[in-house]
Amino acid sequence: MTLLQVAHRAGVSREGRVFGWLRRLAVVRKDTLALRAGGESEVLGLDNGAVFGWRRRHPRSGNFVGLTNFAETEQSVDTAAFGRYGWLEMALSSDGPLQVRDGCAYLPGLGFAWLVER
Question: Mean pLDDT throughout 42-67?
Answer without folding.
Answer: 95
